[in-house]
Amino acid sequence: MKSVDAHLAEILATVRPLAPLELELERALGATLAEEVVAPVPLPPFDNSAMDGYAVRAADIAEVPVTLPVIDDVAAGSDQLRAVGPGHAVRIMTGAPVPAGADTVVPVEWTDGGTVTVTIGRTAPEGNAIRRAGEDVNAGEVVLEPGTVIGPAQLGIIAGVGRRRVLARPLPRVVVLSTGAELAEPGTQLQPGQIWDSNSFTLTAAVRAAGGEGFRAPTVGDDPGAFIDQLDAQLLRADAVITSGGVSMGAYEPVKEALSPLGTVRFEKVAMQPGMPQGFGVVGEDQVPIFALPGNPVSSFVSFMLFVRPALRKMRGLEAGPPKTGTAYVVGALRSPAGRRSFLRGVLDEDGTVTPVRGQGSHQLAALAAANALIVVPEDVTEVPAGTAVEVIPL
Ligand SMILES: Nc1nc2c(c(=O)[nH]1)N[C@H]1C(S)=C(S)[C@@H](COP(=O)(O)OP(=O)(O)OC[C@H]3O[C@@H](n4cnc5c(N)ncnc54)[C@H](O)[C@@H]3O)O[C@H]1N2
Ligand code: MOO
């Protein structure tokens, strides 16, 4: 059997980072920056007030209380500014440019709030409540480096330096295609022999949680022809495809039957539990990577975490490798099949312990939903006594 590490290595050697595109800011959330973002001007571009109050000369308010004439009113956005002469005050709002001559701002709370004259009750040092030009960023300064994932705050600084578009690797578009004649759409009545399709929802959501754009394709039954038709239709918008089901040893395995003859997708047994039957390769003219995951709900989810998630990171232009692990002390003993790496479902506690959930079958979706970690048991270990330190993958 192929090892988990060899399977991941093959996947990572096959998938490529997506080409960068000029993305509108509205489409850039989660994308990976592929250029340096530089501020063309200083930020803030001009000295401005940090508070609503009065711009004055510090020397004029050395002795308080003092009453000064209010010679002007400046709102944020004002560009017609009267200079502040000795003994004058200008009413000023937060963000408004500080007029020439003024060297300090007195918050309105320290005054009587007058509009013709103002009486100031507290003195303020020079530079009080003034935000200086370039205090955030200097002109020509790099504000974001290539390889940065664009989150809300990063979008903010990109817009803040005046950019409308940015060169970035987009979110990988991943089509999720469930197969199985037994699958019914959630929300409909189950007929005898049917179950509700859950994998396509789990996997589409897992794609989104991993920084991709997930699209759930209509499910197909057990007919390889119908599967190929649906795959062809979906390939147009896919940077990668995930299928679930139809990859093991049964009489009706549409994914395996349809893809094996292409010669570009390999179906193998990987030495892991769950998730043993795996298919991986490329399809279509554009050599789109395809992950043919096993149908058992826990198996497909674990396979996603181990193989698809790292691949999506690579497609996003990020460092990619096996999932990050930690260590915890296991509550209760564990068993694991010889020669296979087990990924048991557990609840990781803040006290540093991990408790296996009840129900470790590959079909036990409720137990998976109750878990927050995978407990890794190496290939050569079959029994883990209670209290042993084990490797865990937080979910
Ligand atoms: N003779 C053998 N039988 C099986 C082997 C084997 O080596 N020899 N491997 C077993 C293992 S391990 C797994 S995992 C499964 C993989 O099966 P398939 O990928 O072919 O998946 P299906 O047969 O279509 O379904 C398996 C199971 O999962 C349920 N399922 C499928 N799709 C969904 C979905 N979208 N939502 C919810 N549940 C789904 C399906 O009803 C089956 O119960 O094969 C074993 N058998
Ligand atoms: O290896 Mo299968 O994935 O156990 O259920």
Automatic annotation (TrEMBL):
GO MF annotations in UniProt: metal ion binding; molybdopterin molybdotransferase activity
Record-annotated MoaB/Mog domain positions: 175-314
Keyword NAD: no
Pathway(s) of this molecule: Cofactor biosynthesis; molybdopterin biosynthesis
Gene3D superfamilies found in the cross-reference section: MoaB/Mog-like domain, MoeA, C-terminal, domain IV, Molybdopterin biosynthesis moea protein, domain 2, Molybdopterin biosynthesis moea protein, domain 3
EC number: 2.10.1.1
GO CC terms: cytosol
Reactions catalysed: adenylyl-molybdopterin + molybdate = Mo-molybdopterin + AMP + H(+)
Cofactor(s) recorded in Swiss-Prot or TrEMBL: Mg(2+)
Alphabetical list of Pfam families matching this protein: MoCF_biosynth, MoeA_C, MoeA_N
Keyword tags: Magnesium, Metal-binding, Molybdenum, Molybdenum cofactor biosynthesis, Transferase
Entry's Gene Ontology BP terms: Mo-molybdopterin cofactor biosynthetic process
SMART domains, per database record: MoCF_biosynth (SM00852)
Family: Belongs to the MoeA family.
Function as written in the Swiss-Prot or TrEMBL entry: Catalyzes the insertion of molybdate into adenylated molybdopterin with the concomitant release of AMP.
Protein name in UniProt: Molybdopterin molybdenumtransferase
Top-level taxonomy: Bacteria, Bacillati, Actinomycetota, Actinomycetes, Streptosporangiales
